[in-house]
């Protein structure tokens, strides 16, 4: 499975979001490289949203499956103030929490037909990434 990331972020988080996202991405790209899902999806795009409260309404969470390209796209909000005030390891942890939540959101995509086995494989990959990044 191909894992890619992007973000919608406010300037108040500075470079911290890119740093945390890159660390998470690098490990997940490796961890997911040999993963195949029963549902047929072969690519997962995770987009983190880090916006202040007054702007977050303009950046809703999104979950969709691009069937023709077999791409799962999930946009997940991360509490910007908690992220901004956290140290680097906590920021990575918050990013991983959002990635885990994106897996839960995938279960709501009717066209995806994700299986419980797929969910477990993805969660296991994220937990392996968390262990690698915290150790």
Strand order in space, largest sheet = 1-2-4-3
Give the amount of beta strand, in percent: 15-25%
Q: List segments where confidence is low: pLDDT < 50 over at least 5 consecutive residues.
A: none
Counting helices, strands and paired strands, the structural category is: alpha/beta
Report the mean per-residue pLDDT as an integer: 96
The major sheet is characterized as: 4 strands, mixed
- Tell how many strands the DSSP assignment holds: 4
Query: H/E order of the elements?
Result: EHEHEEHHH
Helix content: 40-55%
Rg is 14 Å
Shape: globular
Cα end-to-end separation: 24 Å
How many domains would you count in the coordinates? 1
* Total of DSSP H or I helical runs spanning 4+ residues: 5
Walkthrough of the structure:
With 135 residues, the protein is an alpha/beta fold. The chain has one domain. Helices cover 48% and strands 21% of the residues. The protein has a 4-stranded mixed β-sheet, covered by helices on one side. β3 (62-66) and β4 form a beta hairpin. The mean pLDDT is 96.
């Amino acid at each position: 499975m191909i894992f890619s990331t992007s973000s919608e972020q406010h300037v108040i988080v500075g470079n911290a979001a890119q740093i945390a996202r890159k660390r998470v991405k690098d490990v997940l790209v490796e961890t997911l490289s040999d993963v195949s899902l029963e549902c047929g999806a072969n690519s997962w795009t995770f987009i983190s949203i880090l916006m202040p409260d007054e702007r977050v309404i303009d950046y809703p969470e999104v979950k969709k499956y691009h069937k023709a390209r077999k791409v799962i796209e999930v946009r997940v909000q991360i509490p910007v103030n908690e992220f901004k005030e956290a140290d680097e390891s906590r920021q990575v942890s918050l990013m991983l929490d959002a990635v885990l939540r994106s897996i839960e959101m995938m279960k709501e995509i009717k066209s995806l037909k994700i299986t419980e086995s797929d969910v477990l494989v993805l969660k296991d990959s994220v937990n392996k990434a968390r262990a690698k990044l915290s150790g």
